[in-house]
DNA sequence: TTGTGTTTTACGACCTCC
DNA sequence: GGAGGTCGTAAAACACAA
């Protein structure tokens, strides 16, 4: 679309009639463009003498007007009556237009801010998910290590029991049946978590305290 | 050129504050 | 009660792919 001539004319008209709308474009001859949907007649249309020949058309503000409004919005998002009138006079706009522009600008600003907040939350959520995956894989590795250790203990216990029943080591390998089992500094069951799936079945009474366990390797 | 999606301007309904 | 806010939406203006 090319409105350059019209735009110039309308800019001129709006200078002459700053209290109406900045740019009022008459329809081309024979051009009848009924609204897509019914809507209550606007004040602007009424002010423009709207009838069957509908003289009012919504027009974009000029770059200069928008720049000035943006600068003003940058200073303060709210618009007091005095500032509104001043801006309107400076820009040759209807104060109502200035008010509407600020309303819409606030809405855009709010949307942008919400979008930024959403992105921030999404990023941190993604990071948490990645962290969770990493921890799960770490847990799996630790489970495997634990399994290997259990197997090793089992193997040693069997060797000790099978080797000599009266050896000093074998006599020291014992654990009270109802004691909480130890593995290093880690005490199973302390945190209330169900670690049943953490341990693979091993023969009973193979647990020993830390010093006894270490003795096997010294 | 045209269909379609996005942005901008404008408004009505409703709410809050003084 | 009036002024000015938000919210939702209509419709014009605009951008752009096909």
Q: What brief labels describe this structure?
A:
single chain; 218 residues; mainly alpha; two-stranded antiparallel ribbon; 7 helices; 2 strands; 56% helix; disordered N terminus; disordered C terminus; DNA-binding
SSE map:
Blueprint: H1 4-16, H2 43-47, H3 63-75, H4 81-91, H5 95-163, H6 168-172, E1 182-183, E2 186-187, H7 210-215
This protein binds a DNA duplex (18 and 18 nucleotides) through residues 1, 3, 33, 35-37, 39-40, 42-44, 57-61, 78-81, 96-97, 99-101, 103-104, 106-108, 110.
For the biggest β-sheet, the strand order reads 1-2
Helix-strand topology string? HHHHHHEEH
Structural class designation:
mainly alpha
Largest sheet: 2 strands, antiparallel
Task: Categorize the overall geometry.
Answer: rod-shaped
> Approximately what portion of the residues adopt beta-strand conformation?
under 5%
pLDDT < 50 runs, ≥5 residues? 1-55, 167-218
Number of E strands: 2
> What helical percentage do the residues reach?
55-70%
Question: What is the first-to-last residue Cα distance?
Answer: 90 Å
Protein name: Homeobox-leucine zipper protein
Family: Belongs to the HD-ZIP homeobox family. Class I subfamily.
Main location: nucleus
Organism: Eruca vesicaria subsp. sativa (Garden rocket)
């Amino acid at each position: 679309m090319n409105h350059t001539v019209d735009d110039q004319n309308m800019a001129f008209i709006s200078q002459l009639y700053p209290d109406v709308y900045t740019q009022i474009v008459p329809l081309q001859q024979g051009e009848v463009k009924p609204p897509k949907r019914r809507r209550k007649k606007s004040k602007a249309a009424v002010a423009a003498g709207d009838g069957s020949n509908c003289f009012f058309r919504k027009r974009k503000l000029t770059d200069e007007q928008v720049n000035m409004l943006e600068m003003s919005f940058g200073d303060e998002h709210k618009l007091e009556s005095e500032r509104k009138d001043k801006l309107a006079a400076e820009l040759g706009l209807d104060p109502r237009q200035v008010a509407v522009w600020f309303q819409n600008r606030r809405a855009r600003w709010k949307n942008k801010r919400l979008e930024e907040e959403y992105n921030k939350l999404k990023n941190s959520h993604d990071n948490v998910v990645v962290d969770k995956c990493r921890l799960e894989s770490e847990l799996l590795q630790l489970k495997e290590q634990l399994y290997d250790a259990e197997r090793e203990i089992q193997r040693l216990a069997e060797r000790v029991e099978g080797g000599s029943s009266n050896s000093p080591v074998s006599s020291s390998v014992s654990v009270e049946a109802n004691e909480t089992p130890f593995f290093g500094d880690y005490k199973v069951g302390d945190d209330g978590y169900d670690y049943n799936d953490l341990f693979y079945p091993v023969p009973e009474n193979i647990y020993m305290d830390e010093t006894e366990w270490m003795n096997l390797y010294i």
